[in-house]
Amino acid sequence: MADAGTPAATATPPRAPTAVSASAAPVATQQRQGMLLFLAALLAFACYDAFAKQMLTHYPATLMNLTRYVAVGSMAAVLLWRHGDWRIWRQPHQKLLFLRSLMLAIVATSFMTALASMPLAEATAIYFTAPLIMVALSPWVLGEQVGRVQWVAVLVGFAGMLLIVRPGGALPLTGTLLMALAAVCYALFQVLTRRLSGLVPAPVQYAYMAAMCLVVTNLPALFSAPVAWPGGVELAVLVAGGFVSGAAQLLLLAAFRRVSASVLAPMNYLQLLLAVLISTFWFQRPPDALALGGMALIGAAGVYLALPRRLK
Predict the structure, then answer these.
(1) Looking at the predicted structure, is the pLDDT value of residue 238 above 50?
(2) pTM, 2 dp
(3) Residues 191, 81: Cα–Cα separation, whole Å
(4) Assigned domain for 17 exists
(5) 76: Cβ–Cβ under 8 A, 6 or more apart, which residues?
(6) What is the domain count for the chain?
(7) End-to-end Cα spacing for the chain
(8) What pLDDT, on the 0 to 100 scale, is given for residue 309?
(9) Which of 10, 70, 192, 254 is 20–30 Å from 79 (CA)?
(10) Range(s) of the domain holding residue 239
(11) Does any domain span residue 251?
């Protein structure tokens, strides 16, 4: 490459902008595609949560999780078939795979059970403390350094959660505790996902997760009264909802292949806004002023912590 002061460098300046714009165009296009895919995933997640909330008035949480993970499991089987290796039990890092999948299974069980008795907006807000919990756990689990300002952001987010679950509020205690458990387990799931990044192929992780969730989320059915099965049309609708949930996961994977997680992470909190809108206009359960303030604190703290370190 020629130095800046050589004749070769001064003789061809018009070509540089063309080369830069030509290389930047595909990157910009890829980033737009990734952000649109991520927004589609958030919309799909929000729609499934609203669908599940509606269906839980007619069907138990175990049936909702059964139909969900039958659909997700069929999608996982297709991914494994394309991957070419069905032996998920012979993959390396079995303990991490098991723990990661178990954490998500507990999340699914707790979240769906709590959602039956809790307003959608407040339930989603408590669940969205998971990134704050992950930051709080990272010094001990991942050996990452957490600065003083980050700890302040975590405390602000937890203060927001206290505004939502304040003593004397209308939220049921059991549902609140189950949603808090879901948030903690989802934070551990995220930590374990980072530990497994690059160690186990994504289709294997997805299939292992689907199999574990299918089993664990239905264990409570062993200790409850028998459930009357829905008719064929209703069952098809429930399974179709499960495919929406599975498609949301695949949209996330497609988005992360195009855009870095640091760019997409702050957008996660759009799902919290969607939950507030759906709870207000679909279920006629708008959060009160204190709960809205708590959600704003959780969202602000989460977005701040999701920003790249160089911006802090």
Answers:
(1) yes
(2) 0.82
(3) 28
(4) no
(5) 203, 206, 207, 209, 210, 211
(6) 1
(7) 36
(8) 57
(9) 192
(10) 38-256+264-311
(11) yes
